[in-house]
Amino acid sequence: MTFSTADLHDANEGKVLVALPGLRNYGGRKEFCGPIATVRVHDDNALVRAALEEPGRGRVLVIDGGGSPRCALVGDKLAELARSNDWAGIIVHGCIRDTAAIARMDFGLKALAATPARAAKKGEGEREVPVTFNAITFKPGEFVYADEDGTLVSSEKLL
């Protein structure tokens, strides 16, 4: 599916939320969208893996890692797991790793930055709760649209 967040914004101004800049594209697919699923964690990606092991059904996993630069919440193995389980993409308010491998995948992934450090696996955090970062709230079941221009959230499906 080809779309432009700029065009979606113009056609739905006042009905969509626009995330502040800061999330970078790392995946090989630059445009992705779908219903939102969420995880809130802090330097721990066990709940991220648990979510991505489930069928994605075209959803986008939005991970609120608190913007932590200390460790990566997603790497190439989790990105491949997500891709193979029919997730449309991942948005990480935090870091990822294995960026060269992820860039070769037909998969959408946005994050703040990269680091080689791995996350803990304690299972701490929350799933399917509203998460807020980059000046917008991502609510489970709403819709996210992401491309190289930015990230939009809508309470209604736009495409």
Brief write-up:
With 159 residues, the protein is an alpha/beta fold. 18% of the residues lie in helices and 35% in strands. The strands form 2 sheets. Strands 1, 2, 3, 4, 5, 6, 7, 8, 11 and 12 form a 10-stranded mixed sheet that branches. Strands 9-10 form a two-stranded antiparallel sheet.
Structural overview:
Helix content is 18%, strand content 35%. It is α/β, with parallel strands linked by helices and 159 residues long. The strands form 2 sheets. Strands 1, 2, 3, 4, 5, 6, 7, 8, 11 and 12 form a 10-stranded mixed beta sheet that branches. Strands 9-10 form a two-stranded antiparallel ribbon. α3 links the parallel β5 (72-74) and β6. The relative contact order is 0.30.
The structure class reads alpha/beta
User: What is the strand content?
Assistant: 25-35%
What is the string of helix and strand elements?
HEEEHEEHEHEEEEEE
Kindly report how far apart the N and C termini lie. Answer: 9 Å
CATH architecture: 3-Layer(bba) Sandwich
Q: Which shape, going by the Cα principal axes?
A: globular
